[in-house]
Amino acid sequence: MSETEEPLRAELTVEYPFTRTTGDVIGAFMTGLREKRIFGIKRQDGGVLVPPLEYDPVSSEPLTEMLEVSQSGVVDTWTWVDPPRPQSPWNVPHALALIRLDGADTSMLHAVLVDSPSDMSTGMRVTAIWEEERVGHIADLTGFVKEVEESDS
Amino acid sequence: MSKSHNFRDIAVISVASHQTKILSQVNEVQLMADLISRSRNSAGLKQEEIGFTCSGSSDFLAGQAFSFVHTLDAVGAVPPISESHVEMDGAFALYEAWVKLQIGEVDTALVYSYGKPSAGSVIDVLATQLDPYYVSPLWPDCFSLAGLQARSLLDKGSISLERMSEVAMRSQKNAFDNPNGVRSSEDISLDDLMSEPAIADPLRKSDLSEIADGGCAVILAADNKADSLCDRPAWIKGIDHRIDSHTLGARDLTRSPSASLAAEKAGRNSDRLDIAEIHGITSAQELILEKEFALEDETKINPSGGALASDTVMASGLIRIAEVASRIISGQVDRGLAHATSGPCLQQNLVCIMEGK
Fold this sequence. Notes:
Chain A is 12% helix and 30% strand. By secondary structure, chain A is mainly beta. In chain A, a hairpin with a 6-residue loop joins β5 and β6. The longest helix of chain A is centred in the first third of the chain and has 12 residues, at 23-34. By secondary structure, chain B is α/β, with parallel strands linked by helices. The model of chain B has no long low-confidence stretch (mean pLDDT 96). The interface between A and B is medium-sized, with 37 and 32 residues.
């Protein structure tokens, strides 16, 4: 091989050629998203875990009692993502936040779609917006927007 | 570590590590062949004299299942070896080797780990370790998640932007004398750091770890074997690892209970600490760890500059152990704490406390 020869190259696509069933709890949450509804699950102490898990992340107790929560809530903490990550559902700069929905005792990770970080603050109220076509996926939620903007529109 | 069993005394007797911004024209086998040879040579051991070999690396980063098998070439094609691997930082491979040595059938072990993040985007690859239904599909990068954590700390009032920059400055100054320190400065000022724009708001560039290629190899030996191979072994007085919930929204991100518990179980409180090498990917995480480990002024924190100066996925934790061990072996210090973390926002933590006799 001469020194000027280019190294061999080949395309490599990393695949995960399996399907998984989501089960009674995560499956119910995903089905809810398809219907524009957000479900949580009741913990032993009466608190509500959103998004729901089959087992309590702290006590490991099995959980079964699902209930619907609000589509609005507060931002517990946030950061700003610019540029947006290449594989993420968002193609514009956005906030990433932990959002505690009304009726929930834990927070869920999602985007808050505002123009700049100066529009963000901890404790601000946000509400969900939805994709037109929903398939039972966490990205059926387009993200969250300021609650006041929602009521104005 | 329970005192009700008869534990063997196990020590780190030799270390070798290398970190640089981009390892070009050098693959993982070439990198590790050099480091493994150096660690074996300085212990005076040949591969056939090593009882167990354990490594840590990331197939997700390499984009190939069982990628670590290729790197085994660096150990040598012969003799056949007893071997294991973790898809984790090498500090956790060291824990496995420590357990293997405790069983008592072998007296020596080689532990190594490496990462070459320059070949891809490690901050995105790390999203694959998150909840596969609720979080991974949103592809949050690791620095954004750490940004959520830093803001929680600021909102709670337990840290300030200035304290974060002080930690970043400590890292850059300490790393100045470290040949593996990728981001270092002798004379950077607090004003310089505090005038940087936010990257993962509220975190600035200097608050985020400097991503680097590299690797580390460590030799462990038990009892008399350690004494016969090394003038001043770094004896492992305690080692423990613990984990917090996978669910970010169910955790108090301003704390790391698993780090605190691991330190307690490893015997953090039994004596003073001369140094601590702690593994955080942000300045804010180092501040959480300082508190969880109750580090006071008597302890020099991250004399190497820590992971903020050079962060090699899968090796940064093992390098913390190597940094403490090498200072004990050389006689600079008597007792130190090394820490490794894994998962988002300090979810899983390992603490290893070493001392010279």
